């Protein structure tokens, strides 16, 4: 997403596995610049990802979100994602104030109503 010639957000849809049995499962990632949070940029990006994924026949989308990222959790829930678990000590931060710390990640999931 761009505003005034600047990139203020981006989104990605990636396969969760190369195994054929999981061909219809994708992982979504959305990142926003601090100054645009709460202005609908995340809604537009996630909405476009969902639309693209359904057109491609994906049946499940997953998102891994740090538990304290309430804004991202709320955004995903708004679009039909639900929490299906917590992956404990899944990632280790490489930078910032939490560098070196192991992090839990909430796993959220959305099933496509158009595929099922």
In short:
The protein has 116 residues and is an alpha+beta fold. It has helices at 41-55, 70-78; strands spanning 2-3, 6-7, 9-15, 25-32, 60-65, 82-92, 102-111.
Q: Any key phrases for this structure?
A:
116 residues, alpha+beta, Aminopeptidase, two-stranded antiparallel ribbon, 21% helix
Number of spatially distinct domains:
1
Determine the number of helices (DSSP H or I, runs of at least 4 residues).
Answer: 2
Q: Determine the mean pLDDT.
A: 93
CATH topology: Aminopeptidase
- Supply the CATH class: Alpha Beta
Q: Using the alpha-carbon principal axes, give the shape.
A: globular
CATH superfamily: Gcn5-related N-acetyltransferase (GNAT)
Number of E-state strands: 7
Low-confidence stretches: none
Overall radius of gyration:
15 Å
Strand order in the sheet with the most strands? 3-4-5-7-6
Strand content: 35-45%
Q: Termini separation (Å)? A: 30 Å
- The CATH architecture can be named as 3-Layer(aba) Sandwich
Helix-strand sequence: EEEEHEHEE
Question: What would you note in describing this structure?
Answer:
This protein has a single domain, classed as Aminopeptidase. The mean pLDDT is 93. It starts with a strand and ends in a 5-residue tail after the last strand. The protein has two helices and seven strands; from the N terminus they run ββββαβαββ. With 116 residues, the protein is an alpha+beta fold. It is globular and about 40 Å long. The longest helix is centred in the middle third of the chain and has 15 residues. The strands form two sheets. The chain has a five-stranded mixed β-sheet with strand order 3-4-5-7-6, with helices on one face. It has a two-stranded antiparallel sheet with strand order 1-2.
